[in-house]
Amino acid sequence: MIDIIAHRGNIRVAPDNSVSAVKECLKIGVNVIELDVALTKDNVPIIFHEDYIDNLTSGKGLLKDWTYSDLKTLSLDYKSKFGNKYKDEKIISLSELLEYIKSLDVYIILDFHPNDDIYPVIEVLKDFFEYNNYENKMTLMVRNFNNGKVLKLYFPNYKVYLTCPRKSDDKHHDENDLETVFANYTINNIEEYINKIVNMGFSGLIVSGNGWFALKEEERNIFLDLCYKNKLDFIICVNAKNIKTVLNYNTKDKMQVKGIVADDLSMALLTLKKYSLSIIVQYISTNYFNKINQILKRKIIKI
Predict the structure, then answer these.
(1) pTM for the predicted model, two decimal places
(2) What residues are paired with 112 via a beta bridge?
(3) What pLDDT band is residue 277 in, cutting at 50, 70 and 90?
(4) Domain 3-302 indexed as CATH 3.30.930.10
(5) Cβ(262)–Cβ(5) under 8 Å?
(6) Dihedral sign from CA coordinates of 222, 225, 227, 233
């Protein structure tokens, strides 16, 4: 079964990267959640995504200009989106998140800000993992090879994913966006790139939907096949209209896509439910007609 992964929590009904966004996921049965990790001015790892805090909090300015204690005075109120419903919602630290989720049935994918020093994050994770075995409940996600190499050194038993976006999606990305990958390696030797990922110990790739569908069909097929052959988890970020297309990559004999990262969880769940139902109906119908044909053939032979 394919995983539906909540992008920053259930952000259609609660603020991004918040405790409430995690709670709202669990309410609808989504327990795989991607959350972002960034550093404050005083190097405290927090659950946050943007460089600027203006659109996501009641404060203004660069995240890097705010200490953690100052950020805790702000609210994740999203007045333009949620009114005053979340006026008391606060930014949480990575440590607070880990303490909150450790007793929950939830799988977390942590996405590290590419320009931040990764070592303050490592220290928090080391302290947590010392007393909590989370190998089967957490994946670490990075935007570059160097951070991936460091994480595998410190946490060899944990899955580490590499993000491969489209170039225009994120100014922080460089050699790992899909357009650059295919420009640098070409379709004939893309296997070299996949081998590099495998040899560095990565367990999977998370791919931008925009970048993915910008590729030619032949490029997509080769990329998927190489991930499958090398046992790399392949996860794709998609909007509602492309979910069914992605689901069709999987067959009963070949599960090429492990997960879909979605903003609209209700639509993703509904699409998955309808798709699963159609597969069941198709399976029953095929078997029913096959049996009818067998019976008819037997009768014809007897006659």
Answers:
(1) 0.86
(2) 37
(3) low
(4) no
(5) yes
(6) positive
